[in-house]
C-alpha cells in the first residue's frame, strides 16, 4: 500500500477525563512527528509507576528512525499522536539482539527489532499495542527480514502478554540498558503454523535463576499468566 495512506481508521475509547469515543488513524510517521513523539514519551515517563519498565529514547534516535529509516508507525487522534511503535534494523552493530541469544553470524543481517511500542495512558485498553505490532510485523515482512527480536521487562505483564500472543517467545533473560533485567523475545516471521509444545513448565517470573536454567536447557517462554498479582511464565520445548 501507499505509505502516505492510513493503514487503518476507526474509533477508540478515550478514558479521561470522561469516557468518550474518538476517531483515529494508524499510519507511517515522518519527521514532522518528532516533537509529538518526544512529548508523548514524556507523558509515558511521567505516568510510569515503575521506571524500570521503559528505557527512554533520545530525540536523536527518533530523528534517525523518522528521517533515515521511515520505520515508525503511529496512531493519531484528532491530529494528536497517542501511540507509536519503532522498527530498528541493527545490522552487524553491537546492538543486535541476535548476539544475546547466540544466533549464527550469518543470520544477524536477517534480524530486525521492534524497539518501542508506547500508548498514551488515556487510550490504553484499546488493543493499540497489538494493532501497532501487527503493522510493524507486516512492514518487516515486506522488507524481507526473517527474525524479529525485542526486549521487555519481566514486570511488564501486558506488553509481554501481547507479544507472546503474537507468536514471540522468550529466548533469554539478562541485564540490558545499564543493569535493567529484560526478557529477549524472538519471532521467525516465516513460521506461520501454531507451535506445539512439549515438557510444559510453569514458573514464577520472580524466579530468575530458575528461568535462566530452563532457557539454558532449551526451553522457551511462550505464554504468561497473572495469578494473584504474580506473573507466571509458561515454558516449553518445541515439538
Features:
single chain, 239 residues, alpha+beta, 8-stranded mixed β-sheet, 3-stranded antiparallel β-sheet, 5 helices, 11 strands, globular
Q: What is the percent of helical residues?
A: 10-25%
Question: Total strand count, please?
Answer: 11
Overall geometry comes to globular
List low-confidence stretches. Answer: none
Mean pLDDT: 92
The strand order across the widest sheet is 1-2-3-4-5-6-8-7
* First-to-last CA distance: 37 Å
Mind summarizing the main beta sheet?
Answer: 8 strands, mixed
Structural class: alpha+beta
The proportion of residues in beta strands is: 35-45%
Question: What series of H and E elements makes up the topology?
Answer: EEHHEEEHEHEEEHEE
Please tally the helical runs, counting DSSP H or I stretches of 4 or more residues. 5
Please tell me how large the radius of gyration is: 18 Å
Quick overview:
The protein is an alpha+beta fold and 239 residues long. Helix content is 24%, strand content 37%.
How is this fold's topology laid out?
Elements: E1 8-14, E2 20-28, H1 34-47, H2 59-69, E3 72-77, E4 80-88, E5 111-119, H3 128-142, E6 147-152, H4 157-165, E7 169-176, E8 180-188, E9 197-204, H5 208-216, E10 220-227, E11 230-238
Parallel strand pairs: 5-6
Antiparallel strand pairs: 1-2, 2-3, 3-4, 4-5, 6-8, 7-8, 9-11, 10-11
